[in-house]
């Protein structure tokens, strides 16, 4: 005869949450019947489901796409808000004495070959509160429409390459023997003009009236030529870059949309690099 330790026979096993073994739970998932602690419980149409079953069910649901192929998302445009927040934080840093933010990240053709990060970093700098407010307001208006339509990665590519395209245009149109070679440029205007071009093409692609956008772009171009201190070169470069990318994004065949979008993004980026290298080589 063998002895049996107390509690080995007839003692029910205490149910614990698989994700949190230290937590006892008598509530079970309606799908897998596993215990689920309060942190892992998700309300369902009938009873409670565990977080694993809910995630598995979500993964099986086909991704909803917009007309232009962007992933349909609920909520605010996260990328647009993030860019605005970055610009505001950088602007506040510009106002701090001794940080030297502006001279360290501003763009001018004379510095671009040795410090190429300035082609992009200057787009997050601004020359004043009004300059910042106008650019961020325009970014919010256009970005809140384009980001959901294009999807996040294409919107980021559009914004970043348009900003760089604006700096490249400043470089290409500057005179190496004149003061324009050492003239500094700041602001998100080049990127914003790229978004202007993009929303015009997107609205045309969707069959909507784009006259107001065209008038807005024309007025801003005129202001760039009339008002002193505004870099019309950056506006032009951003607008052309944005138009090239947006045309590929908006008019790509549906079956090959991702391939065309990636190819166009890489091609535009390489073209900007080639133009920059060729320009500096010719100086």
From TrEMBL:
Residues 114-249 form the Peptidase S54 rhomboid domain. GO terms for cellular component: membrane. The chain crosses the membrane at residues 78-97, 117-143, 155-174, 180-201, 213-230, 236-252, 259-282. It is found in: Membrane. Belongs to the peptidase S54 family. This is Membrane associated rhomboid family serine protease. Pfam families: Rhomboid. It is a multi-pass membrane protein. InterPro entries: Peptidase_S54_rhomboid_dom (IPR022764), Rhomboid-like_sf (IPR035952), Rhomboid_protease_S54 (IPR050925). Keywords: Hydrolase, Membrane, Protease, Transmembrane, Transmembrane helix. One of its GO terms (biological process) is proteolysis. GO terms for molecular function: serine-type endopeptidase activity.
């Amino acid at each position: 005869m063998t002895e049996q330790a107390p509690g080995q026979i007839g003692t029910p096993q205490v149910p614990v949450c698989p994700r949190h073994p230290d937590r006892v739970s008598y509530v079970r998932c309606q799908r897998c019947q596993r215990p689920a602690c309060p942190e892992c419980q998700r309300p369902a149409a009938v009873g409670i489901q565990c977080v694993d079953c809910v995630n598995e069910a979500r993964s099986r649901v086909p991704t909803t796409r917009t007309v232009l192929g962007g992933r349909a998302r609920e909520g605010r445009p996260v990328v647009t808000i993030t860019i605005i927040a970055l610009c505001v934080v950088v602007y506040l840093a510009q106002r701090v004495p001794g940080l030297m933010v502006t001279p360290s990240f501003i763009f001018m053709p004379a510095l671009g070959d040795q410090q190429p990060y300035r082609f992009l970093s200057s787009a997050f700098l601004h020359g004043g509160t009004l300059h910042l407010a106008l650019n961020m307001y325009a970014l919010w208006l256009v970005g809140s429409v384009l980001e959901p339509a294009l999807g996040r990665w294409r919107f980021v590519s559009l914004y970043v390459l348009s900003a760089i395209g604006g700096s490249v245009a400043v470089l290409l149109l500057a005179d190496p023997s004149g003061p324009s070679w050492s003239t500094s440029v700041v602001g998100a205007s080049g990127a914003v003009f790229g978004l202007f071009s993009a929303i015009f093409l997107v609205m045309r692609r969707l069959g909507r009236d784009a006259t107001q956008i065209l008038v807005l772009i024309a007025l801003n171009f005129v202001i760039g030529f009339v008002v002193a201190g505004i870099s019309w070169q950056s506006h032009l470069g951003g607008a052309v870059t944005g138009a090239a990318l947006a045309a590929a994004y908006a008019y790509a065949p549906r079956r090959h949309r991702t391939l065309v979008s990636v190819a166009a993004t890489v091609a535009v980026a390489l073209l900007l690099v080639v133009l920059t290298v060729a320009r500096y080589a010719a100086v």
